[in-house]
Records
---
Amino acid sequence: MSILFLTLLALAPPIGFLIYILRFDRIEPEPTGFVARMLFLGVLSVVPAALIEGVFLDSSLFTGNGLVQAGLKSFLVIAPVEEAMKLLVVILFAWRSRSFNEPNDGIVYAGAVSIGFAMAENVLYVLEHGFGVGIARALSAIPGHTFTGVLMGRYIGIARFAHPRSRRIGNVAAGLFLAWLLHGLYDSFVLSGTGWALMVIPMVVLYFVIGIRHLKEGRDLSAQRWGTGGAHTVVPVTITPPRRKGFRMVVARVLLILSGVFWLLIIAGVIHDATVGARDSGYAVLGGVLITALPITLGLLLEASGRKAAKLRENRE
């Protein structure tokens, strides 16, 4: 199959998703050149992400096959590195831009960076593995990168215009954690090399549901801010984001969810080892205890502290 055809196959899905995102930004559209710049920076961000992942994935901790090892690689290296790299590009190159003048812009810029990242990966994978991989990634990996970018971008947009300023870090962190969680789950299933890979199907459905919901919410915020005539015809109003759970509660629940997912992977691995007669399950359980002891403890403490703070706020009100 020709290189030209495979290249077009690799480029078409990401471009299609970018056009889809831009359709929700027609009230006060972003400069085409700036969106293209963010897309290109997303492409370039693959290089440092690959270098960092290469260093850590050489560790003996990540050798081997199965769902547990895939989960370790995904949650501890691949997902955090890639999502943090996308976030870094948006913070460094879009956060202070004059074009970033409404919450919905966070979705556009983070989405463009994520699509650029997915585009670079897609070209490499499709040219190496061929037509079948191109179709599979168009239906799974590309929506995954796109909509985790949309999700994180929604929180970045809220953070950019949050009042007071102390809420900015909490919203950015929440967006990163959620993108990390979804990305980690997806990669765990894909890299497991087991029947768990079929869980990619409901994961993709979840990506579309979450992504489209946040695209619509961003569009509604844009209409609320500018009206339907756009920024050049209507005087903007200040948007006060809806009250969200405190930062401690968000971090606590993400830590507990990630720990729970990690233990599900360990349990699945232990069951699998038992069926094939392996005898190393004890090390997996011990490793799980050591790895999750701190985040679970911290999560429980933050949850209790957050609930207490929320109750105090309610009493004052």
Note: Residues 281-316 form the longest helix (36 residues).
---
Amino acid sequence: MSKIKVSDIEIYYEIHGEGFPVVMIHGFSANLDWWPQSLINELSKTFKVILFDNRGAGRTDKPDMEYSIRLFADDTAGLMDALNIKKAFIIGLSMGGMIAQELTLNYPEKVEKLILCGTSCGGSKAITPSAETMKIIMRDRDAIAQEEAIREWIPILFSKDFIMNNPGYIENFVQRGIIAPIPPYNYRLQTKAVFQFNSGRKLKGIKTSTLVLHGKKDIMLPPENAEIISKLISDANLHIFDEIGHLIFSENPEEALTIIMDFLK
């Protein structure tokens, strides 16, 4: 557990295991505590797994300034340089998938293979969440406690069946979510960055071998987004998980891991 200077901030990161590097980028408002430990344990048996908190989240510095997905991608590239990682497999989830797209577009030499999970290309090509989901996303975080904010997100992160059948996991997830929660002002800054993101016209420029994963029951970013991305990237393979919500690694870690390991061979 360490921090390292990258440009104008210090980024909090962890390294697990040895081998070819896998850089994992989490999503909007999240930090590395959100990754399932079982996933990290399995990946680290084969790879050097690098986890980190994005600018404004977790234990990374939180400057009050304009954020963008490009800035987050620059942070990721800077972290790789600081850790002397010339090239890596990149896994991006949700907003992390947007960052991974931007990283691959602007630093293709750093990306050996790309895995995009539960994400979108933004802009006019993207399929937006329902009005009900948007109401939760846009909620004023100043008006509620951090734990309440995490609990309010549960129905848009997980499928109804998973929530009903896994109360222990959900409670553990909530407790992990409040270890280093994002401050309200950074939540607003990340929100703006997400809604300004638009890679649709540029994705044809990605020549990196890409795996696109998405849950069919994802209501935060509807699964049609995965189909759009996979059609825009020339060398992309698409897999839709039938009964899964937004956090595919939490709901079906075994199948997700099998697919990922096969792709990274």
Note: The beta strands are 2-6, 9-16, 21-25, 48-52, 88-93, 111-117, 210-215, 236-241.
